[in-house]
Amino acid sequence: MVVMEGPRPVRERVAEFVRGEVTRRTCRTPAELQCTEVVLWSRKGWANQEVVGERAHFEALRSVVGSAHRPMGAEHHVIAALVPEPTNRFDVAAVAVYIDGKRVGYLPREDARRYRPVLDQIEASGRRPTVTARIWAADYEDWDADRDETVARFGAGVYVELDEPHLLLPINSAPIEPHVLLPDGSTIQVQDTAAHLERLAGIAGADGERWAYATLHTAVEQRARSTRELAEVRVDGERVGKLTPKMSDEVLPVVRFLAERGRATASRLLVSGNRAAVSARLYVARAHQIDDRWFDEAL
Q: Which positions fall inside the HIRAN domain (predicted)?
């Protein structure tokens, strides 16, 4: 059995990763760079990494929120770009947060230092790291000394979704064949992992936990007096497990739909553990949970 080697350089992984995971846009920063935006992966599904320094960028945040602003307060979900600032005069390890091309704050100093090595290599590959973000904005009462009265002022807080640095990108590249990545959803435990322990432990690596691109396939399992269809999970074409009959029924309708149209079904797989024991979980939406518009956009 072939064991996956340790993670390849981030620049090499990013260059292959972008095949199935990005959209091309104009990165509207002061440099006005043309680049490819890389959507970073995460287990969390919730933006809870705080951004600091928003007070100095309230004007930009007010512009980002625009007509959706509610004086009593509202949450706004957006996409944010993480931009290393090696020329920052206060901190050469700074990471600025941009939304709609406007700088709205920074990662806290200690967090920025943890993420900069990966973010720098992504930037060096000509890509721009992006994450989901949320803004809480409202009007607050404040004392205006010049007017000698209480006035309403705009205020906002920003949070971005960031996982641990080693979990920002998958360990392998996107499938070579035409494929579609399933939407994110709750986890599905992969079964029969003990039979593929060496392979999966190689994916988890020294960090003990890594993302990988996986593909889902229809497999026929022979029983004593009958057969049944199950969803088989593969990484780089090699089987690493299967789903239970119940969970197979949750995803196989999409697998068949895409296969009939010449597309493989890709998904995000999180592998945790070591050479003694591993766990593998898919992060995918069930067939009945996927918005019908997704099928038009996916093909």
A: 73-130
Cα-Cα-Cα-Cα torsion 72, 133, 95, 139, nearest 10 degrees, comes to 0
Q: pLDDT, tens digit, for every residue of 22-53?
A: 444 445 444 444 568 899 999 988 899 999 99
Residue closest to 217 by CA, chosen among 238, 194, 246: 238
Total tally of structural domains belonging to the chain? 2
Same domain as 218, residue 106: no
CA angle 40, 43, 45 (to 5 degrees): 85
Residue 244: closest CA among 261, 219, 267:
219
287 in the same domain as 147:
no
What's the whole-model pTM score? Answer: 0.83
Query: Same domain for 264 and 153?
Result: no
Residue 121 within a domain: yes
Sign, CA torsion 134/140/143/145: positive
In the numeric block, which tokens belong to residue 72? 């009593």
Q: Is 201 helix (H, G, I), strand (E, B) or coil?
A: helix
pLDDT recorded at residue 101: 93
In a domain, 2, yes or no: no
